[in-house]
Amino acid sequence: MNRRTFITSSIVTSIPAITALGARRERNPFCVFTKPFQSLSYEELADVVAELGFDGIEGTVRPGGHIIPERVPVELPKMIEALRKRKLDLTIMASGINNADDKVNVQQLQVAAKLGVKRYRMGYYKYDLKRPIPKQLDEIRPVLRNLVALNKELGIQAIYQNHSGSNYVGAPLWDLHELFKDHNEKYLSVGLDMAHLTAEGTRSWPIQANLIRPRIGALYVKSFRWENNKRLNCPLSEGIVDRKFPGQLLKSGFDGPVNLHEEYLNAHDPKLVPKHIEAIRKDIATLKKWLGWS
């Protein structure tokens, strides 16, 4: 039995009926962040994701990712071909791109758009806390204008994921509102991360979520709990994110991807792939209950 057959047969045995998440065209696109599966071949990856019942992936196409930026022209077509054989999409390309001034960045987006990729996750901006914040926002604005112009030309949407932390642009969300408000959300949007939103907003997170609602391009679902005043990633069933919010967002008319992140196991150890599969299976079951998916 070869490696791919072994992985696939193990999944089928351990995940009964998980593919029954509802008719594909009757709900939001459902994808999974594939950082834990970077040790797999594209074919193995497609097998795992298809058997878990997803519509596609948020695949890592970035430094240290499944595909590094310089190899995109050669490798991205191979990944997408493997996915499409299993009727899957590269729903979001997780990239390190945050400007249109770098030739490799432009090349990646050109190749991705030509292959039919509709969305990419941006790289992050960070604040220098020794400098005034308004001035730094003003410095980011022209960078975004150039990137949005390229996105519009190519017909691709940038997604900026909010992160918690002392120096991340987007941690408080009001800054993304100010930076993004003059741009069409078709080309520049927010990947709203529930865990980071909760960590930063504590009890006021609904205000930030409401502020950014018109600009949400994807929902990133994961959870955490506080332990010794530190954020500890954990299964959806054990965390503190609001389980009602995903369903409320979908009922409000949000039609973007629902993107499941499992980040509480070591993503860098290939031996843990079976454990990641089982963890994701359990998170799918929890999320199905939250969303009312049958």
Enumerate the spans where pLDDT stays under 50 for 5 or more consecutive residues.
11-24
The main sheet orders its strands as 1-2-3-4-5-6-7-10
How many domains, in number, for the residues?
A: 1
SSE order, as H and E? HEHEHEHEHEHEHHEEEHEH
**Tally of extended strands?**
10
Share of helix, binned:
40-55%
CATH third-tier fold name? TIM Barrel
N- and C-termini, Cα separation: 34 Å
How can the largest sheet be summarized? 8 strands, parallel, barrel
In percent terms, what proportion of residues is strand? 15-25%
Please identify which CATH superfamily we are dealing with: Divalent-metal-dependent TIM barrel enzymes
Number of helices: 10
Query: How would you classify the quaternary structure?
Result: single chain
Rounded mean pLDDT is 93
SS-based class? alpha/beta
Shape verdict: globular
Rounded to the nearest angstrom, the radius of gyration is 19 Å
User: What is the level 1 CATH name?
Assistant: Alpha Beta
* CATH architecture annotation: Alpha-Beta Barrel
